[in-house]
Specification:
It contains 13 helices and eight strands. It has about 300 residues and is of the alpha/beta class. The protein has a single domain, classed as NADP-dependent oxidoreductase domain (TIM Barrel, Alpha-Beta Barrel), CATH 3.20.20. Strands 1-2-3-4-5-6-7-8 form an eight-stranded parallel β-barrel, surrounded by seven helices. It comes from Streptomyces sp. Y1.
Length: about 300
């Protein structure tokens, strides 16, 4: 199995503590955003990234930390209306946020995700919004402010607003054949099984990402901690006999075709090590994954 466990920081109460826990136990990736932890997540990670230079980091651009809104408006990077909305993908704001992110993290991020581009965006404008964002991100890559970029979405793929081929087409238009689009991030779990079902049939975002050479980051694998309470003993016995409900759920996500990294938000060392153990196991067979889909539906 090539799937790896990464730390997601969205639900971490203490980002620095969780990152130290994960890094000291072999984690090679941590995912964050400027608006996480009340706007302090990137700053909290700086000391951990300095202590563990091999630890890679992805962050995001889109949602605006409340504490940074007036600063960005004063700097001329953000309109008052966008500040009020709390989300912006205008090129000037992206450039400003990326410079701030580099300062907050204390280094160049390995990957920057466009964060929920579908947020408060009319359907007819999503392609233009993505293209303009990609132009700004390609410029940042050329200036070595960032290394690469991707798209992190909650419902962009599932709603049909965009697909992976469209993203690759827009990135090629913005940056040429050597564009820097490298990854997608989307929810994959026992609640969000549609991407798994599609991938088993050779279609959908996971399969398209694999074909297009993009890494897939699976977010919310335990659906905010709700999934373990939904896994029956019978289902757990079918998927991963003898394992906990959480481990059972993670086994399905880690086995999904095309998934490269599973992002787990936890500061608990025991939970982390158990998750790392299950993600590191051989993948469940496609036949077993199909049975899970048949049982739970999409």
């Amino acid at each position: 199995m090539t799937t790896q466990l990464g730390l997601g920081t969205y639900r971490c109460h203490d980002v620095a503590e969780a990152a130290l826990m994960a890094a000291s136990r072999g984690a090679d990736w941590v995912d964050t955003a400027p608006n996480y932890a009340g706007g302090q997540a990137e700053t909290s990670l700086a000391v951990i990234l300095a202590a563990y230079p091999e630890l890679r980091v992805s962050t995001k651009v889109g949602f605006i930390p409340t504490s940074a809104r007036h600063i960005a408006v004063r700097a001329g990077a953000l309109s008052a209306a966008d500040a009020e909305r709390g989300h912006c993908l205008a090129p000037d704001y992206i450039a400003w946020q990326l410079a701030r992110t580099k300062l907050m993290l204390g280094r160049v991020p390995d990957l920057v995700f466009v964060h929920n581009p579908e947020h408060v965006c009319p359907d007819a404008e999503i392609t233009g919004r993505l293209y303009n964002a990609f132009l700004a991100l390609e410029e940042a890559c050329s200036q070595q402010i960032i290394s690469a970029y991707g798209v992190a979405t909650w419902q962009g793929f599932s709603s049909g607003l965009f697909d992976v081929p469209t993203l690759i087409e827009l990135a090629t238009k913005a940056g040429g054949p050597n564009h820097h689009l490298r990854a997608i991030q989307l929810p994959v779990s026992l609640v969000h099984l549609a991407p798994v079902a599609q991938a088993l049939d050779g279609r959908g975002p996971l399969a398209d990402a694999l074909t297009g050479g993009l890494e897939v980051f699976a977010s919310a694998p335990l659906h905010g901690g709700e999934i373990p309470g939904m896994v029956t003993p019978e289902l757990s016995e079918l998927i991963a006999p003898g394992k906990t409900a959480a481990e059972t759920s993670l086994a399905v996500v880690a086995s999904a075709p095309g998934v490269r990294r599973v992002l787990l938000s936890t500061g608990n060392p025991e939970h982390w090590m158990r998750a790392a153990g299950i993600v590191g196991q051989p993948s469940l067979s496609p036949d077993l994954l199909r049975r899970v889909v048949d049982v739970l539906g999409t």
